[in-house]
Amino acid sequence: MPKHAYLSASASHRWLACPPSAKLCAQEEDKSSEFAMQGTCAHELGQYLVEKALGKAVTDPTDELSYYDAEMQEAAEGYAAFVMEQIAAAKELCEDPLVCVEQTLDFSKWVEHGFGTGDCVIVADDLLQIIDLKYGIGVLVSASGEDGSGNSQLKCYALGALDTFGDLYDIRRIRLTIYQPRRDNVDSFDLTVEELLNWANTVLAPTAKLAYEGKGEFRAGDHCQFCKIKATCRKRAEYSTELAKYDFKAPPVLTPAEIAEILTRVDNLVSWAEDIKTYALHQAMKGEKYPNFKLVEGRSIRKFRDEAKVASVVTAAGYDPYEKKLLGITAMTKQLGKKKFDELLSEFVVKPQGKPVLVPVTDKRAEYSTAKNDFSEKE
């Protein structure tokens, strides 16, 4: 198999947890999703705004962006403002900090052909900052990572930056920051250079070697979400179907410990089942036959062939073909712009108390008080 950079920093969370998945994923066709393309556009816009704020002669890319809208503009402006704040803070540590935007970072000293692109790298004497813009809204990204030792993608970038600039600066501290505007998530994690290098030498490098060679053990878990072989992976199937040992007894028959174990897996089970259904449908569309199943035309609902013509005919008949509905907060913000929205409507916006949700204890939200809720209901 030819050598190429399939051990990407962005996928490190997956291949560090499940090394042999890297080689299998590399054999699958790359399919860019709409969400990925939105992220690319947001990064281009963010890069432009940061470089413009730094005084560089840059060209506004908005006319060329496929997914540009007011929400993306607001997110990119917030990102650029945050970066400039960090640069201003860095100038308090040294007169002229190094600032690199969309910097190629090579961490191949630890990962075969490993490289990636750092959205923003700031070096101020002993402090190295890696700032990563996450435009996605589906998954909340943590700077501390799953194990609390730091986000693996950003640590790979930090290694690349350290390898590039370490001889020029006496870097001792690393700060990893996730800027995820659509989730109101700005999260930072600090570690020392010694801690980073220890992780690189004892965890990253040996695991990357296994992954590059297609060796190691398959392991299923949350990291399966963006895996290209998630629908057909046997280990994920085994992991998901382990729930069958409970024979799907009624919840009152299960102990709290058993229920807790099921809760840790049930979301993955539902996700796995949907992935299987989606994969099987796509394969059936290509001619694959599955025992006891057949491909049929699904149900559909009636719709107008030409909505403009329908509106014209109904209007001519003396009726109003449209319904009027107040825009929601997100749509209204897009229409007015955040500043104008806040100026006109902030006093009318309320945030009702959220419904109770059962989450792992690692969730950062404060625990819901059932006693307080009981009291309020008695009131």
Order of helices and strands: HHHHEEEHEEHHHHHHH
- With strands numbered from the N-terminus, the spatial order across the biggest sheet is 1-2-3-4-5
- Rg is 25 Å
**Secondary structure tally, helices:** 12
Task: Determine the structural class based on helices, strands and strand pairing.
Answer: alpha+beta
User: Tell me, what is the CATH class of the largest domain?
Assistant: Alpha Beta
State the share of residues found in helices, binned by percent. 40-55%
Kindly estimate the percentage of residues that lie in beta strands according to DSSP.
Answer: 5-15%
Total number of domains: 3
The counted number of beta strands is 5
Q: Which architecture of the largest domain per CATH? A: Alpha-Beta Complex
The main pleated sheet reads as: 5 strands, mixed
Output the CATH topology of the largest domain. Answer: Lambda Exonuclease, Chain A
Average residue pLDDT: 88
What low-confidence regions span 5 or more consecutive residues with pLDDT below 50?
374-379
Q: Looking at the structure, what is the overall shape?
A: globular
- Amino- and carboxy-terminal Cα gap: 70 Å
Tags for this model:
379 residues, alpha+beta, Lambda Exonuclease, Chain A, 5-stranded mixed beta sheet, 12 helices
Question: Topology of this structure?
Answer:
Elements: H1 12-17, H2 21-26, H3 34-53, H4 70-90, E1 98-106, E2 115-124, E3 127-133, H5 152-165, E4 173-180, E5 185-192, H6 193-212, H7 234-241, H8 256-285, H9 307-316, H10 329-336, H11 338-345, H12 370-378
Helix pairs in contact: 3-4, 7-8, 10-11
